[in-house]
Amino acid sequence: MMNYDYLDQVIREVKDNNFDKYDVLSTGQRLYVILSSNRFDLLEEEGTTIAQALKFLETSAIDEIWKRHA
Fold first, then answer.
1. pLDDT tens, 5-17?
2. Cβ–Cβ contacts within 10 Å for residue 42, how many?
3. CB 28 within 8 A of CB 65
4. What is the rounded CA–CA span in Å between residue 43 and residue 68?
5. Residue 52 and residue 46: Cα distance in Å, rounded?
6. Could you read off the pLDDT of 15-32 as tens digits, one per residue?
7. Is 2 within 8 Å of 29 (Cβ atoms)?
8. Contact 32, 65 (CB under 8 A)
9. Which of 15, 29, 35, 56 yields a CA-CA distance of 20 to 30 A from 9?
10. Alpha carbon of 7 to those of 16, 35, 58, 65: distances in Å?
């Protein structure tokens, strides 16, 4: 289960180009941060596309993106 409050903090940091906490996240957490922060440039580093990222994430994570960041 993801800690969305913590990931929201990471999102703010990534938007400021601070990747200290981002670099140690799991793949799913990184994809959540990428999609939520609109840092699609980071998808290339992950070797994935938006569609693949959405497919990888659990429905609950996608729901949180809509609730918190849409």
1. 999 999 999 999 9
2. 18
3. no
4. 20
5. 11
6. 999 999 999 999 999 999
7. yes
8. yes
9. 56
10. 14, 12, 15, 11
Q: State if pTM tops 0.85.
A: yes
Contacts of 19 (CB under 8 A, 6+ apart): 13
Maximum CA pair distance of the chain?
A: 27
Q: Write out pLDDT tens, residues 50-63.
A: 999 999 999 999 99
Q: Which residues 6+ apart lie within 8 Å of 49 measured at CB?
A: 43
66: tokens are 């809509």
- Six-digit token string for 52: 């693949």
